[in-house]
Amino acid sequence: MGEISHSGRIVAIDSQAITVEFVTEDACASCKASALCGMSEGKVKVLQVPAQLGFEVGEEVNILLKRSMGLKAVWLAYVLPLVIMVAVLLGLTALGLSELVAGLCGIAAVGLWYLVLWLMRDKLKNEYTFYIKKK
């Protein structure tokens, strides 16, 4: 299915990890008027990837992640919480609870989902392995 790629620069190397800095651009970056309106800006992010041989500090690299892992992240972070919220809302409304209670329970269910994801962060961190390639 391919890979998701970002350009970055190596800022540090140690025995276990290579630290790469990259700039993420928002949706306004492709707009021709973005320089005039001042709304577009990139954010500098830092990512650590497992150590590999043959890289130097300051070197420009591509940061890569399997596309399937990116799609899995979208499912976990956006699609499943939406499904959970809608299911709780519809289920509790069908049981005769007020819309306010059903809505608050839907929000609480999504909050619980994100708590579960947070508790599983170490397991998820091991699944989502980034790697780098020379440009």
Explained architecture:
With 135 residues, the chain is α+β, with helices and mostly antiparallel strands. The protein has one domain: OB fold (Dihydrolipoamide Acetyltransferase, E2P), CATH 2.40.50. It is 44% helix and 30% strand. It has helices at residues 34-37, 67-94, 99-119, 121-127, and strands spanning 3-13, 17-25, 42-50, 60-66, 131-134. It has a five-stranded antiparallel sheet with strand order 3-2-1-4-5. A hairpin with a 3-residue loop joins strand 1 and strand 2. Helix 2 (67-94) packs antiparallel against helix 3 (99-119). The longest helix is centred in the middle third of the chain and has 28 residues, at 67-94. The radius of gyration is 20 Å and the shape is elongated. It starts with a strand and ends with a strand. The model has no long low-confidence stretch (mean pLDDT 85).
How much helix is in the residues?
Answer: 40-55%
Widest β-sheet, arrangement of strands: 3-2-1-4-5
- What is the domain total for the residues? 1
Q: Please name the CATH topology.
A: OB fold (Dihydrolipoamide Acetyltransferase, E2P)
Class by helix and strand content? alpha+beta
Rg, alpha carbons = 20 Å
The largest β sheet comes out as: 5 strands, antiparallel
* Contiguous uncertain segments of 5+ residues: none
Instruction: Assign the CATH architecture.
Output: Beta Barrel
H/E element string? EEHEEHHHE
Short summary:
With 135 residues, the chain is of the alpha+beta class. Helix content is 44%, strand content 30%.
